[in-house]
Amino acid sequence: MTTTKPDRYDVWVMATVAISLAGFVVGLTWIPGIAASDFPTVDWPWVEGLGIDLAFRVDGLSLLFVLLITGVGVPVLGYAAAYASDGAKRRRLCLLLFAFLLAMLGLVTADDLITLFVFWEATTVISYLLIGFDHEREAARRSALQGLLVTAAGGLALLAGLVLLGAEAGTFRLSELPAALADTDPSDLTLSLVLILCGCFTKSAQLPFHFWLPNAMAAPTPVSAYLHSATMVKAGIYLMARVHPVYSDHELWFPVLTVVGAATAVWASIQALRQTDLKLMLAHTTVMALGTLTMFLGSSSPVAVAAAATFIVVHALYKSTLFLVIGVIDRRTGTRDRRLVSGLSSVLPMTAIAAFAGAFSMAGFPPFLGFIGKELKYEGALAIAEEPGLVIVAAVAANAMMVAIALAVSVRSFLGQPSDVDAGTPPPRLMVAVPLFLGLCGLIFGLAPSLIGETIVQPAATAVLGMPAEIKLALWHGVNLPLLLSIVTVVLGIGLYFWLDRITLGLDRIGARLPVSGDRIYDAVLHTTLDGAKRLTSVVQGGRLPVYIGLSFAAVGLALLVGAVGDEAETWSAIRLEPLEPWEIASLALLAVGAALAIAGRRRLTALCGLAAVGVGTTLVFLMHGAVDVAVTQFMVEALIVVFVAAVIPKIPPFESIRRSVRERVARGLLAAFVGLGATLALLRLAPPVDRTITSFYEQMSVPEAFGRNVVNVILVDFRALDTLGEVAVVVIAAFGAFALLRGRRFSRGAE
Amino acid sequence: MEPYLAVVIGLLVAAAVYLMTDRHMVRMLFGVALLGTAVNLVVFVSGDVLRGLPPLIAVDATTPNGEVANALPQALVLTAIVIGFGLFSFALALVFKTAQRFGTADVDQLGAAEPTADSKFSPVDGSKDGAAERKRAA
To answer: Which of A84, A418, A699, B115 sits at 20 to 30 Å (Cα–Cα) from A352?
Structure first.
């Protein structure tokens, strides 16, 4: 026991809590300034050439998230310290959570698109480490990888979108974007909008990318509570709110966000009813909440935006409470199956209070903050002028299922006959205290909504809308349509609750028959990609030298053809076909016949003769076009090659020792024709006027500077003497190499 | 002359590609030699191809008299020929040694660097299974 106590108060863990708390307090001190439009900013030059800075700016929206991240972060860090079983794990968990907290703070305060992206990716990577925290479990590793791949793929799309947006605006400053883009035609922004939404939808688990989030519940409970409910998944929401002023006039913005958000909310609620694992159930309700937020951000109506801003706070509070409660249940009973646990209030009285506080807020019962959030949601839904019907139906349906689930988590688990599941250990006091604190926050803010209304929600809505918004949160709005809708919701929800087990069974039966699911598509895509990569590798890296060479030549041929074709036709008509002298015909014929012999020669000596004929033909071409020195060299080299090859050839197996299939020969022939054609066409395109500036320099300077009358020789041994020295060195090295190879009869190895 | 040379160079390149994708090492080597020749001709053609008149300067003059062949590509080609010769000779020695050591000139049979399913020789005991060794033992 003495060893665990100091561990809990590990200096690193304490430091993370203290710094986070300090961050929260600093955030609180900013409230009056931001309300007066005095935004704290930091600006460090980073990549000056590209106009990218490490710029940070805290406006109302950022402040909402800063307070949320630190405000939920501090309790969760404390809970994590109590949750972890041993010292090493505790330190790792808390430091990772803290690193995540910092990345998240950077993300929500960044004022530069690229800076924002860097922090965005940082949250993705840290999320990977946290989901896979229990890396001994295969399921955890798979979920971690899945979360990483889905969100990182979205991140790539996001990067492209942000760069496009920055290029279009001419600035990477988020705060300057709306003004810079004021005169831009919205259709120019379509591509960047779609790409940025891809990033947001993957991060915030919208359909059809929703599947990774429930799988991410493989993470330890505090991680689920913090990352996958209160903060990280809200990064997508944050970004959508952040770019709201830029894109809200775009014709795609409203329909895409509304439809995707509504579909996600309803689908996720149905999925949530299917679950029997309490944690998974909550995970699906998180997806539902994210869908609702997306739906509301589609609108530009102040009430809808205010509803979204309020609901961010409401959701963060009740969802972290409930996740942490379930962590306590899990620890105490050893199970999270909602069918097995009941009557826990006798063993976990304090946790029961927290659970009821969280659940009632989630269900939207007065006087909890959730009630205000829900009223505002209905008001916002009614205010969405374009499509109030769809939004209201989706909101009521999703909320009714929320009520049922809230009752299942609280009433079902904590009231009634005590269950005999008792496989766990009593949880540490801190683990009980934290959810209680968060749950009571929901109650306090519900009773005194002005604590967050004008201080946090109003500046946030102002920042999103780009104009001052007047928002008053109140418990009692009088008898109006939202209140009626609330009553309908509660009645529906209670009905659903009593039918819950049957609904679960029925949904499970339907769900099992669904032909596609996000998870299966993910698996299929992953497998196809890996399989395709393997196949591609086995083709291009098959270990066969002829294939490597062939592929390289295919690329060369393609480049030559692309370079030669596709230009204006005049260059082709400029080709002049002069009559040839007989000796010219002879040299060309020697080249062609030699090439043919080299290919067709079945015997080694015949092919060698072909090679020699090509050499002589080349010599003739050089000789007859004023290149005497070159011709002499070529001839000598050719003679030496013939001698060398002839000396060696008898000791090498004949050509016939290798059987070549017809198919192989045809393929090689086609490739050869392709590359040869490319070479010819590219050469024909060489325009006749040759720039002789350098040549005439050599011609002028040959005698006065180098005292030589053979210009070619002077170039080689005087002007470019170092080149020639290098050339000589190459030949000498080659000679030494060949000598070393041929000297011994064979390499000695091992016992020999 | 250039258009005709372009066609012939195309033929040489085609022959070189065909030979270099062969499995016999000597034929591959011939392909390398042909490709070298073809490229030298390309460099040569990219200057002007003029009949006669090498770039020489008369004893009583300081510059070449009249229109002479382009000296620059000639110098480059000359260097290239010599380097190509060095490359060819060394490669020939390598091919010879390899054929001696493994008893085959088929590159597909030389699995030492990247063993494939059908390669006879593995990197570890390559020399021990070689035909030369077998011949010696017999």
So the answer is: A84
